[in-house]
Every structure is written in C-alpha cells, then in structure tokens.
Amino acid sequence: MEKKNKKKKRTWILITAGMVLAGIVAAGSISSHFGGFGTGPCADTTEFAQYAEQVEDLKIPEKTKIVALGEASHGNAEFQQLKLSVFQNLVENAGIRAFALEGDYGGCEYVNRYIHGGEGTAEQAAAAIGFAIYRTDEMSDLISYMRKYNETAKDGDDLRFYGFDMQRWSYNLQYLIEACEKAGIDVTELKKLEDTEEQHSEYDVEQQSRVITEIKEELQKSDVKDIVQADHLADTLLQNISLGKVINSAVEGNVLRDQLMAENVLWILSMEEQRGNSCIFISGHNGHIERFGNYGAGTRVMGNILSDELGDGYFAIGTDFYKTNCNLPKNDGKRITHTFYSYDPLAKAAKKAGYDMSWLDFSKVPENSQLKEQITDHVSMGSLGEGYSAIFMGLFPRSYRTSQSPEKLYDGMIFVTDAHPIEIREEISEK
Q1: What pLDDT, on a 0 to 100 scale, did the predictor assign at position 23?
Q2: What is the greatest pairwise CA distance in the chain?
Q3: Which positions of the chain have pLDDT values less than 50?
Q4: What H or E segment, with its residue span, contains residue 206?
C-alpha cells in the first residue's frame, strides 16, 4: 500500500509539473502580443536617444484643455514624483492652476482647504484622501508645494486641488452637511447617513438616495454661497450609491466608475473655465487615462470618453517601467514589494540609452523611422494595479502587462528605468 501511495504521489507531482510547464510554454507562446518571460525585444537605441527628452522639457499643444498623466503602477515612488514635477512644469510654463486626482471629491476638498491655509499638516491632508497609496512623502511634497505656492499667489491665481472619484463617503457627506447648516437647511435626516460607509445607516440605499435628492432640491431654493460645490457633493454621494448597486460583475462596476469619473473631470474643467483657466491637469492609473482603453466590447474608460468629448483638447501622457520593485497589497491588507519587468521595447531602449527617466513625444518621431513603427505597433507595456497573485502573475506575465499601440493610447510616454516602491505611512488622524 505504501509503494502504491508513493507511486500515486509521484504521478500527481508529474501532472502538476506538467501543468506548470504548460503554463510557462503558453505564456511564452503569446509573447508577440503580451510578452513572455524575460525583458523582450529592444527598440533602436540610437533612434530612441535622438528623439527622447528630459521630463522637464515636456510641452503641451496650445489648445489642450486636459493634460492627463498616467501611472503604470500605483505602488512606485517615481510615478508619484512625476505628479509634482509635471504639474509644477505646467504651472510655470502652461498657466495650469488645477490638479485633479483619482481620489474622491470630498477627501480632496480637505486637501484643497489645507493648501488654502487650512489647519493641520500636509501628511494629514494626504491621509484625508482615503487611499493608502497616497499616504506617502511624495504626495505630501505635492501638497506642500501647492500650499507654499498659494501663500504668495495673487487673487485668482491660486492652485486648486480636486478629486474625480466617488468611492469614499464621509468627507462628501461632512461638507454637504456643513453647507446645508450654513444655509439653514434641516439636516436631521442627512445626519442619519453619517455611518453609511460602515454599513450602519438606518436607511437602505433607496432611502439614502431619496434623502440626498431632497437635499439637492432644498439647495436649489436656498441662498447657499457656493451652491455649485454643495450640489456636486450631493451628486458624488449619489454616484457612490449608484456604484454600490452594481453587483452583477466587476466589469460593469468598472465601466460605470470610469463614466462617472469622466463626468466629474468635465465638471472640474467647467469650474476652472469659470475662473478663467482653460486647462487642467489630472492624474490616475494608465488604465483610466488612456485614449482607447476598454473593459470589453462596447465599453470605454475615462480617457476614451474625454478624448471623444474634447478631441485634440485631451493630451494623454502614459508611463512605463523597465523594471519595478512595486509595493502591492496582500490578501490580509498588509503590503509587500514584488519585482516585475515590462516587455516594452521602448522602455528597454530607454534603459540601454542610459536614461533613468525620459520623455518621448510621439508627434516628434518622424513617419519614416523604425521608432515610428515601434510606437504604432502592438507592444507589451507594464500595468500593475492594487492586487497581487503569486501563482497567476508568476506563471503568466501577460497578467500584469497590456498589449496595445502606444501611439493609439497616448500622445507620448515617460519611461522609468528602475522604479522603486512607495513607502506608506502608518494611518494617522487627519483631524
């Protein structure tokens, strides 16, 4: 019996090894589109160096209305540092005065109040955004820069901080209650929604929607000083409820979220245009800001919607890494660093050309060059979100890569040769 069990065990080991090998072979066999193991092919290094520039040399077309900076991952310091360096460049050279983040409106309003002289620290303001990936020195540096700029800015020339997401509840509700109380609007029922994020509200989602909709009607009759912002706070809460109702599939939820984020970005643009500013800067994951992304047939991501709406007025900047040590969450909520390589021939050329970081404006690459063929062809680019699977991502590199024409997705790309992990601060009170 013991020999039989040993033989059975060896059989299962062989079967398992065969399955693993089959997975590796399958992953390698699709390398032409998604990238297999290793670091892949390399674009012409000499040609790349001829057209690549330093990030500080980045310029945008005159008629641009939205500049969108993407992240190949949320868990790398360099991509967060780019938020500040690119935004500062655009403030100084393109007259941009608004920064909008893939964070909820209410939490980012906390930041906006801080950079306009509010109490607390930059670290507390970053914590108010609500996502762990923003509790970093890099985000605090961005917030500190904006506050310092505003200390000496002329009237109407101040920088403003917005959020275009709707996944958080508390600050949107807090500031809506505040606006209503100032206008003398009864907030008794509204305050009953304060525990909704923890699922302790005595109202179900339909009742929550009713309460907020009735508040919107009261706002229209009131003399709230900033009724537009109060109304948007209410709309963001209704968006949060709508997103929570989507339980059929993750894809359906992603599609709705991107649609709502696009609507919010256009609202932010309209607010800035009323202030006399014709262009805004936004930042989010590559998968949200790209021009032709989708979650399946007939769907569109945020950048796709904005590009369709604004045409050449939408300027998309993608990013990629050659190698990344990326900070990612585990199932238990803790985070750990993992190493990945993209399969991007452009990122590899940037490395071989000696760049730590470089900017490639696709409009400057001539039609008759090999580099032009490379940016129009499907290439495999790194794409890491807030998730990790050792087995799946280890066996199938395509799971953290996206295959598409860089030129179709973006107007240009920034390449980071060696990306380092963000260091997330412990949770602190933002009060």
Answers
A1: 40
A2: 87
A3: 1-4, 6-9, 11-34, 198-200, 430
A4: helix 205-221
Other CB atoms closer than 10 Å to residue 47's CB: what's the count? Answer: 18
Cβ–Cβ under 8 Å, residues 302 and 255: no
Residue at token pair 């040993």: 6
Q: Tokens in use for 294?
A: 């989708």
pLDDT (tens digit per residue) in 267-317: 999 999 999 999 999 999 999 999 987 787 778 999 999 999 999 999 999
Residue 54 to residues 51, 99, 281, 314, 350: CA-CA distances in angstroms?
A: 10, 22, 19, 22, 11
Reference 326, options 142, 74, 155; nearest CA is 74
Closest CA to 222 of 186, 190, 191: 186
**C-alpha to C-alpha distance for 190 and 192, rounded to whole angstroms:** 5
Q: Which tokens hold the place of 54? A: 């330093």
DSSP state letters, 209-249: HHHHHHHHHHHHHS--TTHHHHHHHHHHHHHHHHHHH--S-
Rounded to whole angstroms, how far apart are CA atoms 301 and 255? 7
Q: How far apart are CA 231 and CA 239, in angstroms?
A: 12
Task: State the pTM of this model.
Answer: 0.89
Tokens of 416: 């980071």
Question: Contact, 265 vs 284, CB < 8 A?
Answer: no
A 10 A CB-CB count for 151 gives 10
| Ordered structural domains, the chain, with CATH | 45-165+250-419 (3.40.50), 166-245 (no CATH)
